[in-house]
Amino acid sequence: MAERLATPGGSRRMAPTSVQAAAFTAAAAAAAAARHPGGCNALAWTTVPGRMTSTERRQHLRQQSQPEFQGQVLPPSLPAAMDATRGDGTSSGSAVSFCGGVGLGLLAAAASRRQRAGSSGGVGRMAKAGGGKEKKKQAASVYQDSVLIGKTDFPQRMNATVREPEIQEFWRSERVYEQLVDRPASKGTFTLHDGPPYANGSLHMGHALNKILKDAINKSKAAQGYKVKYIPGWDCHGLPIELKVLQSKQMKKLRRGGMTPLILREKAAEFAQEAVAEQRQSFERYGVFGDFDSPYLTLLPKYEAAQLGIFEEMLRGGHIYRGRKPVYWSPSTRTALAESELEYPEGHVSQSIYVAFRVAGDLPEALKEKVDGEGLQVAIWTTTPWTIPANRAVSVNPALEYAVIKATTAETGQTRRLLVAKGLIEKFAAVIKAEVEIEAVFEGGMLEGLKYEHPITSIATPVVMGGDYITTESGTGLVHTAPGHGADDYNTGLKYGLEVAAPVDAKGDYTEEVGLESLVGANVLKDANSKVIEVLQEKNLLLSEEAYQHKYPYDWRSKKPVIWRATPQWFASIDGLRDGCLQAMSEVNFIPAKQANMMRPMIEGRSDWCISRQRSWGVPIPAFYHKETDEALLTPEIVKHVKDIFAEKGSNAWFELSVSELLPEKYRADADLYEKGTDTMDVWFDSGSSWAAMQDVLGSPVDLYLEGSDQHRGWFQSSLITSVAVQGRAPYKSVVTHGFCVDGQGKKMSKSIGNVIDPRDIIEGGSDRKKMPAYGADTLRLWALSVDFTFDVSISPEIMAQVGSDVATIRNRSRFMLANIFDFDHKVDAVSWDNLPLMDRHIICEAEGLFSMMTEAYDEFSFNRATKALKDWMSTISGFYLDVAKDRLYISAANSPRRRSCQTVLRWLLENLAKLIAPVLSHTAEDIWKALPGDKSERASSVFLAGWWTPFPGREGAIGTVDEAVEAYRLLLGLRAPTNIAMEQARKAQQIGGALEAGAYFSFGDGSSEASARLRKAIDLVSASPHHEDVDSLRWLLGVSQAVVGPAAGEVLATQEDEALGATVSIARAAGTKCERCWMFCESVGSAEAHKTLCARCVDVMDTMDVGMLQAA
Predict the structure, then answer these.
(1) Which ranges of 860-975 does DSSP label H, i.e. alpha helix?
(2) Between β-strands 296-297 and 233-234, what pairing exists: parallel, antiparallel or unpaired?
(3) Where do runs of H (alpha helix) occur along 539-666?
(4) CA–CA separation, 323 vs 568, rounded Å?
(5) Which SS3 state, helix, strand or coil, does residue 752 take?
(6) In the chain, which stretches have pLDDT less than 50?
(7) What is the per-residue pLDDT for 257?
(8) Helices 863-877 and 797-819: crossing angle, nearest 10°?
(9) Which 3 state secondary structure label does DSSP give 363?
(10) Are 740 and 792 in contact (CB under 8 A)?
(11) Helix, strand, or coil here: 516?
């Protein structure tokens, strides 16, 4: 029974012939084996049952491309196991494009014979098809061993969970990263300073995105000739680690007795180092290069000393001070927080209240002329009722107009005379549900000097002039001011010398200073609001109460609300650094540029930086306090002395040594009068000191900082402030920002929602392997480098499946090229530029344009642009060049110029593609590099040591320019589209089968159009090519057996006009007989007595193989 073969052009029926039943003589077989060592043994392919729909055929092919066939070379008929050889693995109207003219019947016969002979190559496993039934044996062809089938050990599927670790071990054993660092750098140095991830738990997708982006940048720069030294870092101090340690079972026991700061610090250091080890392993599994044996850790003595060095210089410059002012305070973790340690979750609801404060005493003289003071009350609004006891003033905006209104509530009938901003009267009346009557209107400045009765203590309290923060957007226009519980309140209080009252302890409980015994002990985040409201109601001061939803700061670690609370803290003054920071920012290249606009307002409006924390695990602030007065002793000399101790002993010395040992000599006489402070530094001061800690290794400023967009208020900013304070400039030349990872619907990843994807699952496979198979690190890398990271980036199982398919496509195309240069020695067989056909020159120039564009995109950090261009081009080259190359590679004589020129191109393409994809698909690139045939000692041991892509030797002219002949050839490529459309019409009408059964005939109308003239000229130019007959002619370009300019020879089956080209293509059945070896239809078939079923071209090839007269079996 005849069989059909799955080919790019569709299924072709084969019937055994007498010649197919014949056999080579022993001498001929030996000659073929000598010429083609390995023969077809590396071939693995499949037969398809004769009666199958195209859908059934695809399903059948997919079954036979499963893992048990890995390590075998697919035949040219099965790229991507589909009907067409397209880069995206799908079939289309162009599926009829030339299958290479390969005699696939010969391949079937070769496979069948080797199966019977028990030969290697896995062919025997391909014997069954369609339900597992044994197929009848395919008759052998005498020409089967004359076809030059490619072979390679490069597997179609990487088996990444095994192969990638093997490659990584090779990188380690060969010290590839170290060789990159040590080799001479032709372009100087490039330094990307790693922002330290927090040493607290496993990595998430954001970490993967961040580190892979950095790695791709470093690798591309190193390959282009820069010296790149990448030192990974970790942030090891701070509250999250301390809390994790305190929550452990072992520490819970110690907390009941025996807990000391040193014990806690020892356990915290152990926890951090364990986290570093785990995260390091993950980063290396991603394929990241770096000095992982010598990372920078913020807990190392050298680092801590460098941090104190910055603190010393800032203190010396007058930028450090101690003050009692309101800071963000977390009652849940009992420490001060910086703005960068806050988050603002959606949905926070506060209890807001409107309150009336009774006016006390006489009105100011200016106001007496306008207003009667009898029964007058000041209306205020607040969303923090618990701050009412700390009220020390009411602030107004002197630029606003205010009014006295008579408000009568419908519910109670009570009438009040209230002071409110004129612009808020209507809103205010609606809230308190009252009918209002305006008595008087006046400027806000006239209220200065007015006093009211404090609602808790009844003390006369002033109305003061505030600032622009008082508006008519909400409230009453008169702002309850508690200097101990708000930044604006504090600043206003400074102008008027108001008490900075904050009657709240570290837990958030009212202290005795609250002024009312019934309130003592109430917690400001629990019951204090309701208790204050009760007091106000009792005094008939409450006007209204309602829920108010707004953004409110939460502790990013405990996820609990924070408060403003005045406490003694250490601050870095921003006022003296603000202008310098803004100037330094103007000299930084922000990518994307819009991010500069995000960070600038943060600096412009930033308040002083609270750098002290009330925790044990951190770098101690080296301050000493007088035991009786609590006055701080902190000088640059003291800091320098402690810095030197830390450099030698580490910061635990602060807890181990006495005050006398920690103080410099000149202060030791008074050591008994002082005690050590217990505050540690903000972790953002830790990480913001990294530029100084690494300055001796990386220099400053470095070329690049790259982190998530949240670091504009974090590491980017803290590094900028410390650097400007110490060295008067930014620590970086450029800043690149990436977005956050979200799911496929753009939602934030959350464990509660169940949409979190673990990067380990992408690499090693998830619990549900159908949903998340083991894709390997390269698929994770391609995802990270295919997205537009300047926005939030989506990831989902569906997205990863597509990326996995993209990786497979790149491997498939690379595998085809590798297989077909198995017998190519570039030192002996390479063809020079001047002797290359136009087809090859075209593809080289096109590739150089791609390589140049990808280099430019890499340099601009536009990896998504580079990877998209690569994937598109791989699809293009597969759909044309690799497809038509099969005839040259398989059917030509081994050393024929048409074959060697194609192999020259493939070798050049492979070497440069491996170099170009190495920053992205690091493991795949190394795999390709190792699979290149030839003497491995003559090339770099690793693709990462091989440099960057190089233009084709001997080609002249700038990248992107081509000569007139290549330009003409490119114009003729436009004829493929109308030709394929016409052939598809003929095939649907069942007038032809594959493309090789067709002849294409071209006409140009009356030839008068400019397009027709241009096309005719191009045809003439291409016809003049010395390689026209064997490579450059239209029949090879179109993949048909004949292509003629002129009327059709025979019945026209289909036509297609292309007005833009000025041509019409007509399809007719190809003239002549089908050649048994190459399947081209040719009138020369049978002209040679020795090879009756071959065309003249194949006869010539057979003659080079010394195959004599064949006799029928």
Answers:
(1) 863-877, 883-886, 897-917, 922-931, 964-973
(2) parallel
(3) 578-586, 594-604, 636-649, 653-656, 659-662
(4) 5
(5) coil
(6) 1-105, 107-136, 1108-1113
(7) 60
(8) 50
(9) coil
(10) yes
(11) coil
Q: CB–CB of 123/44 below 8 Å?
A: yes
- Phi, psi (degrees; rounded to nearest 5) at 932: -60, 130
Do residues 614 and 276 touch, judged by C-beta distance below 8 A? no
Rounded Cα–Cα distance for residues 965 and 968 (Å): 5
Tokens linked to 96: 């009829």
Amino acid at 351: Q
The torsion angles phi and psi of 380, rounded to 5 degrees, stand at -125, 165
Return the amino acid letter for 228.
Answer: V
H-only helix segments in 558-714: 578-586, 594-604, 636-649, 653-656, 659-662, 683-687, 690-693, 695-698
Can you give the pLDDT at residue 998?
Answer: 96
Tokens of 688: 């913001």
For the chain, the farthest-separated pair of C-alpha atoms sits apart, in whole angstroms, at: 130
DSSP code string of 964-1033 = HHHHHHHHHHTTHHHHHHHHHHHHHTTS-SSGGGEEEEEE-TTS-SHHHHHHHHHHHHHHTSTTIIIIIS
- Kindly state the tokens that stand for 663: 């103080």
pLDDT value of residue 340: 72
Angstrom distances, CA of residue 889 to CA of 817, 824, 882, 899 = 10, 11, 10, 5
Instruction: Give me Rg for the CA atoms of the chain.
Output: 40
Looking up tokens 């629990």, which residue turns up?
526
- ∠ CA(1069), CA(1072), CA(1073), 5° rounding? 105
Query: CB neighbours (10 Å) of residue 149?
Result: 28
- The CA–CA distances, whole Å, from 820 to 154, 905, 972 equal 12, 11, 27
Taking the whole predicted model, whether its pTM rises above 0.90 is answered as no
Q: Rounded to an integer, what distance in angstroms lies between the CA atom of residue 23 and that of residue 14? A: 18
Amino acid present at 134: E
CA dist 126 and 323 (Å) reads 81
Burial of residue 496, with CB atoms counted within 10 A of its CB: 0-12 exposed, 13-18 middle, 19 or more buried? middle
pLDDT of residue 590: 95
- Cis amide leading into 622 (omega within 30): no
Per-residue tokens: 430: 């609606």
Q: What is the spatial distance between Cα 11 and Cα 772, in angstroms, rounded to a whole number?
A: 34
Q: What is the rounded CA–CA span in Å between residue 1099 and residue 1088?
A: 7
697 Cβ partners below 8 Å, 6+ apart? 229, 231
Rounded Cα–Cα distance for residues 159 and 180 (Å): 28
CB neighbour list of residue 775: distance below 8 Å, 6 or more residues apart: 160, 762, 763, 765, 800, 803, 804, 807
Would you state the torsion angle of the CA atoms of residues 912, 916, 919, 924, taken in this order, to the nearest 10 degrees?
Answer: -60
- 702-708 and 192-193 strand pairing: parallel
Specify the pLDDT at position 1106: 66
Query: 1004: which 2 tokens?
Result: 């140009």
